[in-house]
Amino acid sequence: MVNDCTISTLKGRDFLTIAEFTTEEIHTFLQQALDMKQLQKKNISHPYLKGKTLAMIFEKSSTRTRVSFEAGMYQLGGSALFLSSRDIQIGRGEPIPDTARVLSRYVDGIMIRTFAHQKVEELARYADVPVINGLTDTHHPTQVLADLLTVYEHKGTLKGLKACFIGDGYNNMAHSLLEGAAAVGMDMTVASPEGYEPDKTIFAAAKERGAENSCKISFTHSPQQAAQDADVVITDVWASMGEEAEKEKRLHDFNGFQVNEDLARLAKNDYLFLHCLPAHRGEEVAAGIIDGPHSVVFDEAENRLHAHKAIMKCLMEGN
């Protein structure tokens, strides 16, 4: 059950990283997402944000992030404004503090999808409305909330499960998965080649929080070790947005880290496969895995909508 006191702690907050929220607050987001998903499936209106407006700043292109936030605001009774960096003054050098102060006079919330995490932090520092991190180079918290929602729906629990991430340990998904798993008490092992380890500060903080929540946060250079007896197997593209020039080098470096049938046999018989999409079949994942019976990637993609609605409702309702 959602605690009203917990909901009150979320109003007006920013959503920059998973690590900023308590276990109870994360479960509140998840329960709100589940509740609104049920309402939508029953065609029951839920205009919690009637009259509210969300500004959406995109410096990185997107399919799922844009559609889920825009459709989500519409379903919540509000509206969303798409702001490309090519179309607003931030793309011509306007200082972030000025953009934050101006938008705060017009809208009720700001979502930004960009490169440097420091830009999101600066935007939040100067904005008077909630700021939501739609993705940065180091964090992808809204995606991981959808991932946790998907695992919970299929497994009925999060605490005590064993998950692994196979791929680039320094990317935004790995970092947010470490933080999310530690917060909900789910074991998480990241497996990456040498030179692609997670950020040391993020990893150390997740490991400490995991110990507090009786779960194990670990790293290995062996994908086989990570996948052994896993309930959840996760991967992502080897060259993230902005790293395309490194693709050939990464294809070489990540040789042996593909999630394929041989690796998946090490996981539990009822394991789930997750990928935030878009995916490159034949690179980080074999087609037989992502298109196979253990894959829940399209449930995961759908849950972006419900997770994002929960974030917006909790932060913006009555604010």
What's the arrangement of secondary structure elements?
Layout: H1 4-10, H2 23-41, E1 53-58, H3 64-75, E2 79-84, H4 96-106, E3 109-113, H5 117-126, E4 131-135, H6 141-155, E5 162-166, H7 172-184, E6 187-191, H8 200-212, E7 217-220, H9 223-227, E8 232-235, H10 247-253, H11 261-264, E9 272-275, H12 287-290, H13 297-316
Parallel strand pairs: 1-2, 1-3, 3-4, 5-6, 5-8, 6-7, 8-9
Name the strands of the widest sheet in spatial order: 7-6-5-8-9
Q: Which structural class do the helices and strands define?
A: alpha/beta
Q: What is the CATH topology assignment of the largest domain?
A: Rossmann fold
Helical content (DSSP H or I, runs of 4+):
40-55%
What is the residue-mean pLDDT, rounded to a whole number? Answer: 96
Number of helices: 13
Q: Name the CATH class of the largest domain.
A: Alpha Beta
| Major beta-sheet overview | 5 strands, parallel
**Rg, alpha carbons:** 19 Å
Principal-axis shape equals: globular
Give the oligomeric state: single chain
Strand content: 5-15%
In total, the number of strands is 9
Spans of at least 5 consecutive residues with low confidence: none
Number of separate domains: 2
What's the CATH superfamily of the largest domain, by name? Aspartate/ornithine carbamoyltransferase
Indicate the CATH architecture of the largest domain. Answer: 3-Layer(aba) Sandwich
The H-and-E topology, N to C, reads as: HHEHEHEHEHEHEHEHEHHEHH
**Distance between the ends:** 23 Å
